[in-house]
Amino acid sequence: MINTNTMESGYHSCFFDKFDKVVNKILKPTLIITLGIMSILIVYQVFCRYILNSPSNVSSELLTYMLIWLGLLGASACFLQSKHLNLPIVLDKVSEDKQDTLLIVTIIASLLFGGIVTYSGYVGLSNQAFTPILKMNLGLLQSVVMVLGSVICLSCVVKLSKLFSKNRNNLSKFIILSVFIGLIILGYAEIKSNEISMDYIEENTEILSFFVLFISFFFFLLIGMPIAVGLGIAGLMTLSLQMNLSELVSTTGETLFASLNNFGFLALPFFILAGNIMNQGGIARRLINFAMLIGRRIPGSLWQTNIVANMLFGSLSGSAIAASTAIGGIITPMAKEKKYDMPFSTAVNAASSISGMLIPPTGVFIVYSLITGGGASIAALFLAGYIPGVIIGLSVMVVAYVYAKKNNYPVSKASIDFKSFLNVLWGALPSLMLIFIVIGGIIGGVFTAIEASGIAVAYSLLLSVLYKTITLESLTKILYDSAISSAVILFLIACSSVMSWSMTFAFIPDTVAEMLISFSDNKYVILALINITLLIVGVFMDMSPALLIFTPILYPIVTGLGVDPVHFGVIMVYNLSMGVVTPPVGTVLFVSCGITGEKITSVIKPLLPIFLVQIIGLMLITYFPVLSLALPRIFGLN
Hints:
- The protein has helices spanning 4-50, 57-80, 96-124, 138-141, 143-166, 169-192, 195-203, 205-222, 227-239, 245-259, 267-280, 283-295, 301-317, 320-337, 342-353, 363-371, 378-384, 386-406, 418-443, 449-466, 472-505, 508-519, 523-540, 543-560, 565-579, 587-596, 600-623, 626-634.
- The chain has 638 residues and is mainly α.
């Protein structure tokens, strides 16, 4: 007997899948073209400023609004493809039936968020103001918010249709949970309309806001909701304690849009794009050859080569994942052939790849600088990251040296003639020149960090063309991947602005500061507590969301105690970079294990001594600020 309900459910699922694919087909070329045009515009801007000596205000404004569209349209594509960051700790440890229940809760919450964003975007259409230079209608520009909200709702409907077709009981779960959540919302609305309860909320605003914000956010985090959506909803729930609900809903879209209306954010997608071009451009092999010149005479020469190459390539790409993939992919077959300990090789590759997150140019410092409102300049942060980044790499080199000596790993005794040395150096020099051009130009005041990101894109593309390692097809893929990677971070920034707004509104940083200072008013004790907190946070949360959540809370506290903003930025990035190598969220560890084929459990043991030495490095960075601030001060940037 044919189950007509199942057939009907399957039909709906098929219909929504097709609609989903159509939207994806529209979004993909749109993102590729948008980022491509932006790349041309940033190069044009540099050309106008330095060749024509006439900066283009038109391109500046156009780039800013194209960035917003790239971020929000890219976020839409990420919802359809489930590419937004989440933390499925609980989700992965419960039965399939309970997984479905948790997924339905996250979908209902996301559907509500999507509905709010859609309505808010619709309200924004009535904005009749115009941009100052191009005279573009702001209401029309803000229509991208309505597109984002609509696509969030569409992605939720697609997921629900799949759950219903998978198990009909999920439909009844959805109805029950929807009614339950609806009753909670109605109950809350009733509380808001009661004068007695509102008086109580006003009297206890700070403490209530603190608990509502963090309890709701960590609840959404644990059940596997996309982190960005969790940030947005937690922020809205907190703001609703003090704001009229209709006003809050109508201004949400404007907040998301305005949060990305910052010319400084342009450096982010361009450095990501430059790194991805580098990753595809045959750069890794040349850097490994150069690294072998440095590491070949040290015990465990292949490990030392891996570490040095990761430091070099990581600084070029600004990505630990790109470094561990590109360098590890080449070193691993060589290590296996020479009978190297593969769990230790995996640990070395993973732990050294994060050095590139501190050695500039790196997008993480750009995000930190913008979160602090320019309290720490990008140029100063770039210089401050050199010594701490090298310390991370040297920490791994020391452990690898001790391990190699203890286990009698051979040292290369082969000599290299001067001509061969020059050939290797010549092969690596064009790639290494990018560091000198970008960092030298920023420090020397020749161009800004945003312009430097455009130069990095043009230079890396030129190298790839000269090396004949890039095609039109691979370039379109790089543009799309870069747009998606940028959108994940930009949407996190947009949603974190809602959370930051709520924290500022409720004086939460002041509340946290009072709690910490009540424990101790010694800045060194406070820094120790912050280090412990961030190391734990890094285990469970990826770098970007952790930076966006904790910087607005901790920054006012430490600067109030006299800690230099640049120094604190280095402390935060050093702490959180270690987290990308630790399970359960350690993406770099997963990538490195995937390359070598080793189990994570076998890699944990060799990672522990490396972490111990890196934590000693963290203590040095924390309590000897000169290690971070010496270079910025030498160049007059701090």
